[in-house]
């Protein structure tokens, strides 16, 4: 099973709240078999501890340490919100990248995401993408 596939990507979503955004990101991970249902609650708890907003219109929702037992397989979900969703404090998120990491794979996954998202040009491409393949291509360039 690949970490990111077309089925894990939602384009042109309109989301009214941070909670809704995190739930949508988590639901993809659940529906695709990466995590158990309770992982979404742990993602919401993680957000209460510290925001997963990373700057540059990116948020990386993921579960708490307690969520490790809910991870079945490492996987990613990507939700594109071109109009943006408020993550509090005036932080607007246009790309959500949900992470589920089995064992310590989440660190490797995070570093790849950081490489992609550190370049504003890549983030702009993610926000403007009209096809799932465009998003896959941007992430595949990192491997």
Q: Got a strand count?
A: 5
Structural class, by secondary structure, is: alpha/beta
Strand content: 15-25%
Poorly predicted runs are none
N-to-C series of helices and strands: EHHEEEEHHH
Biggest β-sheet description = 5 strands, mixed
Side by side, the strands of the main sheet go: 1-4-5-3-2
Distance between the termini: 16 Å
Describe the 3D structure.
- By secondary structure, the chain is an alpha/beta fold.
- It has helices spanning 18-31, 39-49, 105-117, 120-128, 132-140, and strands at 9-10, 53-55, 58-59, 75-86, 92-100.
- The chain has a 5-stranded mixed beta sheet with strand order 1-4-5-3-2.
- The longest helix has 14 residues, at 18-31.
- It is globular, with a radius of gyration of 14 Å.
- The model has no long low-confidence stretch (mean pLDDT 93).
